[in-house]
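Re-run requested by the PI after the first attempt was lost when the workstation crashed. Everything re-entered from the original request form. Ligand of interest: S-adenosylmethionine.
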Amino acid sequence: MNIRTIERAYRRYAPGYDLYFGRFLQPGRRATVQCMSCHPGERILEVGVGTGLSLPLYPPETTVYGIDICPEMLARGSARVFREHLEQSAGLCRMNAERMGFADDTFDKVVAMYVVSVAPNPGRMVDEMRRVCKPHGELYFVNHFLHPHPAMAFIERMAAPLSRFLGFHPTLSLQGLVAEASLEVTEKTPVNAFGYWTLLRARNNKQTFRRAAVRTGCSSVARGTAELRAQGATAVAAAQDGSEFSLNPKIVSADDPA
Ligand SMILES: C[S@@+](CC[C@H](N)C(=O)[O-])C[C@H]1O[C@@H](n2cnc3c(N)ncnc32)[C@H](O)[C@@H]1O
């Protein structure tokens, strides 16, 4: 799967996403935000924020920055920000989580909910999450991983050829991700129905894995707070197409941030 395949898949999912994956996966989102125990003034980044189903769960004193590659998902997230009066605490931006436009050490906590098995290069995405997170910050993931039971794993492997259509890899293994991304996991909790999904909390061990900053464009924007605009200055400065963060509640374009 590449970034275009993801965009296409989620363009298709967007209209029914909240209906199919809203309530059903909300316990995992809730458990994740609880586990994050966000403090007032903290700056949180949520990658692959989608339609923003998690946004109302964060305490209002935190600032949440949500990025996603799919404009149709972001448009729904944007509507939610308005509907739930979250304008002062949440800002959304179209950006590739594998090549973020944020400066190093920008966020206190970085979270990916149901995204690592969707992203084309999960290892690269985790590298980027680590880079933009402060050295003593934390990374959080909630996701389904390849089932440890052989019979279930067999069924999931059978579904693997459909991953382009499904828009996620049903066979991403937890051990594989932890090893590939050198995650220092401090907590692992089963969540959602039958504990089929896993919540991971990891220390940001970035000193060991500091990478060169990758600054690419944040080319279209759904919504932003004044603070988001300031934080996005780096991204804006580097934006390849010259577009910038907007406080206007609309997606300004759908060009290629990849
Ligand atoms: C299964 S949805 C999860 C959405 C949301 N986090 C939730 O809890 O419902 C996965 C989302 O990740 C986004 N995504 C996948 N790869 C991405 C990437 N490399 N950069 C940004 N967003 C990405 C997709 O567009 C999609 O909206």
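Saved to the shared folder this time. The chain has one domain: 3-238.
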